[in-house]
Amino acid sequence: MATWLGATSSSALLRGKIALALPPLVAAQRRLDQHPDPAAAWIAFLGTLYGSVRASVPLLETALDRARDLSTADPLAAGLVDYLRHHAEEERGHDEWLLQDLRSVGVASTELLSRPPSGAVAALIGAQYYWVLHYHPVCVLGYLMVIEGDPPNRQQLLDLQGRSGLPASAFRTMLEHADLDIDHASELADLLDRLPLSPSHNEALGLSAISTVAGLTRVLNEVGDRLAEVGIRVSPGLDCSLPDGRIGS
Amino acid sequence: MGNGSDVDAVAKLDEIIRNRGTRQNFHKHPKRTMQDEGGDPNAVPREVWDTVTHMSSAELDAIGELGVALDHSGLLDGHLAWRHVV
Known about the structure:
The structure holds two protein chains of two kinds. Chain A is mostly helical. Chain A has one domain: Heme Oxygenase, Chain A. Chain A has twelve helices and no strands. The two termini of chain A are 31 Å apart. By secondary structure, chain B is an all-alpha fold. Chain B contains five helices and no strands. In chain B, helix 2 packs across helix 3 (30-36). The termini of chain B are far apart. The chains are: A mainly alpha, B mainly alpha. At the A-B interface, helix 1, helix 2, helix 3, helix 9 and helix 10 of A face helix 4 and helix 5 of B.
């Protein structure tokens, strides 16, 4: 529970709520980490990850539009505008990075893009649209705090690359985020502590974050279940599709 | 989580939060509910106690429905590679 800083600020309180919710997500991560074929598991994970990453900028832009609409009468919404605009620009193109990473290990983008998206990913992202459009755009910060508040660990990624035998190109996007998201988490915490958040807003942020943890857990468990069902073995440079043509998403 | 009393207290807190009835009681009267259920509220790490006592009933419901206990050893210290990014 090292992430707890004491529940004295909005960011610390939100981090505390996230820490309480994390065990099932860590269990799902651990299941993939212990998969006997790390290369197959990583490729399946990236395919699924693409499903949510391609939704990041549109989601942030939707939150930005909503914040702008509310901003003349709502100081909280006004306080989000610059952050959301800047953050959407920072995240732009990361979906293409992931496609390149996948192409580098033989996964065809056309196949990935033609596949119906996972219901778990749609539910994860769809919940954010609901909160943003029907309650308040600040809710998206609960989602971001879960995802960017605890960035990928560079050494763990390098260890996994070594175990998997996959080329470094398959880890490029995640390694970039291991560095980028440290600053993003800090910026987000600073923003949360500056915003005029009411108890209701703090509650909505908590519900958004806990829902995000639950959604990510479901997404990762889907990947784990699919790998377990098909019992695949994929090697770098060879056909990386599952026997039924799926990789993830 | 450090000593055994911390672990026992968090396990008791987890049990309370997983049960709808005790969860509702906890939201209204946290200390009294812990004591009534045989737990020691003073043994819960302060950051955990501060967090759960600042949570709304809906937030506690959401945590309670996640399905994995707070006291699963080691799960809270994971630094695994399988993170989502934006």
